[in-house]
Specification:
- It is found in: Mitochondrion membrane.
- The protein is mostly helical.
- Helix content is 58%, strand content 0%.
Length: 53
């Protein structure tokens, strides 16, 4: 029945949107970044961070 086609497209769009959101959330929360060591952060020279206007 062609009259029911918009409902089918809408349900497919909602289903794929939910799958896309779930996939992105799983990828985002499964990633654990490495925290820098305190030795690496102490090597930053603060003189280079000043703007020379």
């Amino acid at each position: 029945m062609p009259q029911m086609a918009p409902i089918n497209w809408l349900s497919l769009f909602i289903m794929f949107s939910i799958i896309l959101l779930l996939f992105n959330m799983m990828n985002y929360y499964s990633f654990t970044p490495k925290l820098p060591n305190s030795k690496e952060t102490s090597n930053i020279s603060f003189k280079s961070l000043n703007w020379k206007w």
